[in-house]
Amino acid sequence: MRAACAALSGLIAGFSALAVAELVAAVIRPEAGPITAVGSAVIDRTPPALKDFAIRNFGTNDKLVLELGILVLLAGFAVVIGVLALRHRVTGSAAVLVFGVVGAVAAVDRPEGQPADALPSVVGAVLAAGVLYLLVGRLAPVPGPSLAAGGRAGEPVSHAAFDRRGFVIAASAAAAASAGAGLLGRRLTSAVQAGATASRRDLVLPVPASAAPAVPAGADLRIRGLSSFVTPNKSFYRVDTALVVPRLDANDWKLRIHGKGVERPVTLSFKDLLRREIIERDITLTCVSNEVGGPYAGNARWIGVRLADLLREAGVKPPSRGGPANQIITRSVDGMTIGTPVETVMDGRDAMLALGMNGEPLPFTHGFPVRMVVPGLYGYVSACKWMKDIELTTFDDYDAYWVKRSWSQQAPVKTESRIDTPRPFASPKAGTIPVAGVAWAQHRGISRVEVRVDGGPWHRARLAAEDSRDTWRQWVWEWPATSGHHTLEVRATDGTGATQTGKRVGTVPDGATGWHSVVVDVS
């Protein structure tokens, strides 16, 4: 009984640590909380293969799985420390401080870490050590007579007897106080972020001076099971390292442009961007972690400011015109760094600092108030969200976040195609079956898509109308299906005439290749 109560004491102490830490983090900044700090440290040190495994198996829930895993481990350690404290009260209680140190180091060691970020973990651990010390003290044997069942007055008390009532009261009070602290922390965080929420809610996007043409009538084939041409914001993929989504107030937002070859460094506000010429474009984005046939591609209508114009005004020249910098490093408020070729951004494509997505301000999860969008490049070398800084440098002088983790410095999007319908292992009936999907080769366009069955001859699919070479393109092939077990494969040819390779290569270091295949059983 005492051991079980000691384990419970450890859990309550752990809960107290996390709750109080969240309260302190609400005052400092939400990213300083111990779960976020430790989780971010784990992400930073995760090998690319393991990262891809998490994305492949858990999708956008990978961060939730990580946080739950951390909580389970902490709960296990809390139980062990609680039992240890029953035998060695001071040592067990002091052991809690070790986890405070781990959280503090993880918080401060982040790229955007500050000394104050250590406080949530430290304060939470100190309080937890005190809670554990007091609760375990309630489990000490009670001297004196006992009238326990079957006993008689005057008999010595059992070695396991303790003040149950006192322990229950103390444990309940500690748990209630911790819950109150956690709730208060949540409310304080919401209050702090209220300005950011209001700035997004009140933002009226300007009418673009250069509007995107209407999507061609035949761009969306509207076939059941086929991805819609425009991906709704709520369905758009999200792959990043932020355990806590930054919520920035557009009224306080600033962007600094500086570095090698910048003749006129500048700091811009959000209002400065709104006063500039606004463009609107349909652009498909793709994540480098997208496996062949994977879901991490989406198409949206973006509005923003041409990045090349901002760079030229700052005096930046591309390498082809004698500029000394060949890499743009964009920094996010969460510490992410992304490296993008200067030449690519300034070659005439619609690279932009995006302010809106599908007719509304950027969602917080997609970078509000400002993110970068560069058609033709994978996200890890172009799509910086929650950005705060642009520095001009060279690839020789600086390796961005993902380059330090075995990914290539430069990564143009590869020509890819995907079968959306029929789904894998579907059992359609024999007859004419529409095989349909999407293909993309941003900034080169798609000129042809072909499908084959069971390794036979390739059949040319019908392409949907092209919106632009920066968007994906739908396709369909009417398959005269016969009964049996069949394998469907697809390949695409881009606007330069290059056909997608069938060689299967994983995502590391610069994107997967291979033909997507689907197995079906026609009845």
User: Which range best describes the helical content: under 10%, 10-25%, 25-40%, 40-55%, 55-70% or over 70%?
Assistant: 25-40%
Mean pLDDT: 94
Number of strands: 18
Query: Strands of the largest sheet, in order across it?
Result: 2-1-10-5-6
DSSP strand (E) fraction? 15-25%
Termini separation comes to: 62 Å
| Low-pLDDT stretches | 146-158
| Shape annotation | globular
Biggest sheet: strands, sense, closure?
Answer: 5 strands, mixed
Helices, by number, come to 11
* Structural class computed from helices and strand pairing: alpha+beta
Order of helices and strands: HHHHHHHHEEHEEHEEHEEEEEEEEEEEE
As a whole number of angstroms, the C-alpha radius of gyration is: 29 Å
How does this structure look, described?
- By secondary structure, the chain is an alpha+beta fold.
- It is built from eleven helices and 18 strands.
- It has a five-stranded mixed beta sheet.
- A hairpin with a 5-residue loop joins strand 13 (446-453) and strand 14.
- Helix 1 (2-28) runs antiparallel to helix 6, helix 2 (34-44) packs across helix 4 and helix 2 crosses helix 5 (89-108).
- The longest helix has 29 residues, at 164-192.
- It is globular and about 90 Å long.
- The termini are far apart.
- Residues 146-158 have low confidence and may be disordered.
Task: Give a quick precis of the structure.
The protein has 523 residues and is α+β, with helices and mostly antiparallel strands.
Key structural traits:
5-stranded mixed beta sheet; globular; 523 residues; alpha+beta
